[in-house]
């Protein structure tokens, strides 16, 4: 298989100075500071085929941003091998960064005190993009991302959503083969978020761009990617599709019952999470408890007027998963 | 689909300078009030940087063995050197500690070109950064006229060589000290403000008559003597040594080589540690 991204046994350790606030420790802090080793990545193996969208997720401090920095040529691994498009991002930096696009949700590549159009013109020269290609890509991103309304606005005066759209457009002007998106929808409203997601999907589908995207918003990642890689304490804790993730995390479902009686119900294997005026809400794990058993229990207690079930949001499942990992750690 | 990095570095540099010059012109010309305020402010800063040594020369009719007009020439040269740095290395390109300390080096590493090309181009500000260079050139022209110096093509070439070399030494000094920010990004973020101020304060004084130890220090550890004093001695014909015209360019070569070596070592460290800090928009402001 043709892999766009390949990480082999990649590890990265940071050294973090710890400082006591006690006055008596002044000399100790100066001469023999306490240094803590933070293992950001521990022997990561990851391959991403060309044209795939991969969601890269995990709790804070799991190693997501470190991975994106390694892939963006901003950081070298302590050990292991990073290859993207067959190149070493740090050693082949000049050739490499011409073939990738990077968007950091918390940073901007736009020129702060210039209109968006000026940043694009700057990019054309610095990236040495041919006139024909530039015009074609500019036309495409202008249309798909709706940039016309603010092409002549200074970057510092853009709203967050506009800035993100402009940054994303700029990252694509040179037709990168791989796109790294680090929390691209951070702080955006639902509409701006939807537009960005739609655009990334279109770019992937129509242009075959490989995308690695990190986010804390699981719903968003599920809409975007077919595959999710989850990190936990620097190791890959899960790599698969979202259906498998649901099974892995626990198949939590919400179970709603409507009864003529206002009295509360008790069901073995289900946790009551709310309800009033004859509506009762429970949550249960479908991988352990059968719905028919719950219905039987309920029917034994009262008359059932209506039943509804639906899957718990992926965010809830993942939060449970993080909690489980944390418990296992302690 | 790949973007081909330019093969001819000089052509690349010229095209980069062209886009940065265009952006700089558009920036400074974005409104009459802004432009006037910018240039007036620049003029005040330029003049205040050299006023005190001019006042000293005026009060004592010269400084040491230097006549008042010779001091004025040296001040013009000092302005032109600083102006050259502003002209070619604005937007914090001459303050690498800020870019490193603020995590903005990442922006430079994401550009598909060698880092030296980025450093040599992305602070090119011929419109907003020309104030001190123009002021310095005017002061030099006036002093040359008043001193009735014999000016020919060789002398002008020598002047250009010394301005270029002195500006290179100033930059090398900035990169040498600025590389400390690789070790302590937050603590050393503003170290270049201090190193620049140090050179600014020391460069407009003639070092004749100063003791050997101090002169040696001001030609090596803090190379302020190369920025205006020694070039002025050569250009004013005060230096008896025939090879003296080579000293400043040679010092520039050594300084740049040393700074490049230290900066590269810092970059290797940066690749290992990365940056944990980021302030948006800093160097592009």
- Spatial sequence of strands, sheet with the most strands of chain A: 5-6-7-3-8-9
Q: Would you tell me the structural class of the helices and strands of chain A?
A: alpha/beta
**Beta-strand level of the residues of chain B, as a percent range?**
under 5%
Distance between the termini of chain A: 40 Å
- Using only C-alpha atoms, the radius of gyration of chain A works out to 25 Å
Number of domains of chain B: 1
Could you please describe the fold and organization of this structure?
The complex is a heterodimer of chains A (about 325) and B (about 280). In chain A, about 40% of the residues are buried. Chain A has helices spanning about 25-30, 65-70, 95, 115-125, 130-145, 160-170, 190-205, 220-225, 240-250, 290-300, 315-330, and strands at about 5-20, 35-50, 55, 80-85, 100-105, 180, 210-215, 225-230, 235-240, 250-260, 270-275, 280-285, 305-310. The mean pLDDT of chain A is about 90. Chain A has eleven helices and 13 strands. By secondary structure, chain A is of the alpha/beta class. Chain A has a six-stranded mixed β-sheet, with helices on both faces. The model of chain B is unreliable at about 280-285 (pLDDT under 50). With about 280 residues, chain B is mostly helical. Chain B has one domain (about 10-275). Chain B is built from 13 helices and no strands. In chain B, about 65% of the residues lie in helices and about 0% in strands. Chain B has helices spanning about 10-30, 30-60, 70-90, 95-100, 105-110, 115-120, 130-145, 155-180, 180-185, 190-200, 210-220, 230-235, 245-275. Chain B starts with 8 loop residues before the first helix and ends in a 12-residue tail after the last helix. At the A-B interface, α3 and α4 of A face α1, α5 and α13 of B.
């Amino acid at each position: 298989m043709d892999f766009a991204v390949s990480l082999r046994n990649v590890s990265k350790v940071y050294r973090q100075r710890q400082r006591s606030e006690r006055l008596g420790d002044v000399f100790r802090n100066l001469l023999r500071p306490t240094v803590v080793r933070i293992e950001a990545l521990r022997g990561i193996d990851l391959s991403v085929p060309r044209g795939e969208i991969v969601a890269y997720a995990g709790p804070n401090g799991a190693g997501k941003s470190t991975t994106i920095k390694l892939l963006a040529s901003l950081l070298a691994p302590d050990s292991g091998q990073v290859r993207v498009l067959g190149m070493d991002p740090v050693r082949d930096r000049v050739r490499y960064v011409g073939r990738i696009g990077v968007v950091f949700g918390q940073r901007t590549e736009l020129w702060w005190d210039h209109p968006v159009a000026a940043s694009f013109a700057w990019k054309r020269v610095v990236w040495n993009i041919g006139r024909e290609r530039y015009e074609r890509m500019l036309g495409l991103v202008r249309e798909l991302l709706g940039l016309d309304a603010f092409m002549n606005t200074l970057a510092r005066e853009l709203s967050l959503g506009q800035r993100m759209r402009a940054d994303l457009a700029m990252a694509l002007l040179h037709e990168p083969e791989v796109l790294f998106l680090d929390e691209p929808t951070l702080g955006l409203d639902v509409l701006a978020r939807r537009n960005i997601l739609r655009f990334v999907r279109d770019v992937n589908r129509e242009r075959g761009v490989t995308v690695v995207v990190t986010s804390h918003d699981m719903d968003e990642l599920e809409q975007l990617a077919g595959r999710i890689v989850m990190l936990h304490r620097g190791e890959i804790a899960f790599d698969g599709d979202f259906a498998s993730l649901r099974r892995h995390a626990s198949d939590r479902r919400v179970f709603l019952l409507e009864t003529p009686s206002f009295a509360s119900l008790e069901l073995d294997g289900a946790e009551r999470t709310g309800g009033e005026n004859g509506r009762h809400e429970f949550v249960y794990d479908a991988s352990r408890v059968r719905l028919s058993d719950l219905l039987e229990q309920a029917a034994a207690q009262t008359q059932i007027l209506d039943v509804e079930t639906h899957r718990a949001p992926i965010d809830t499942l993942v939060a449970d998963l993080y909690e489980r990992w944390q418990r296992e750690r302690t | 689909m790949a973007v081909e990095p330019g093969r001819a570095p000089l052509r690349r540099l010229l095209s980069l300078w062209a886009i940065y010059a265009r952006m700089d012109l558009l920036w400074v010309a974005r409104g009459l009030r802004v432009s006037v305020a910018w240039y007036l402010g620049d003029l005040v800063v330029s003049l205040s940087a050299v006023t005190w040594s001019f006042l000293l020369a005026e009060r004592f009719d010269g400084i040491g063995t230097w006549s008042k007009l010779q001091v004025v020439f040296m001040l013009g040269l000092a302005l032109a050197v600083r102006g050259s740095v502003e002209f070619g290395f604005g937007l914090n390109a001459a303050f690498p500690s800020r870019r490193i300390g603020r995590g903005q080096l990442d922006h430079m590493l994401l550009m598909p070109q060698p880092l030296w090309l980025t450093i040599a181009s992305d602070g090119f500000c011929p419109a907003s950064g020309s104030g001190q260079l123009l002021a310095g050139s005017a002061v030099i022209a006036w002093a040359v006229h008043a001193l009735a110096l014999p000016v020919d093509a060789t002398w002008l070439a020598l002047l250009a060589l010394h301005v270029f070399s002195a500006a290179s030494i100033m930059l090398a000094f900035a990169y040498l000290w600025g590389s400390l920010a690789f070790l302590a990004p937050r603590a050393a973020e503003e170290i270049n403000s201090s190193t620049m101020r140090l050179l600014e304060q020391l460069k407009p004084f003639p070092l004749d008559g100063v003791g050997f130890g101090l002169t040696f220090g001001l030609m090596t550890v803090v190379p302020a003597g190369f920025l205006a004093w020694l070039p002025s001695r050569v250009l004013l014909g005060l230096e008896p040594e025939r090879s003296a015209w080579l000293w400043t360019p040679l010092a520039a070569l050594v300084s740049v080589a040393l700074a490049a070596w230290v900066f590269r070592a810092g970059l290797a460290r940066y690749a290992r540690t990365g940056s944990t800090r980021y302030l948006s928009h800093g160097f592009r402001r």
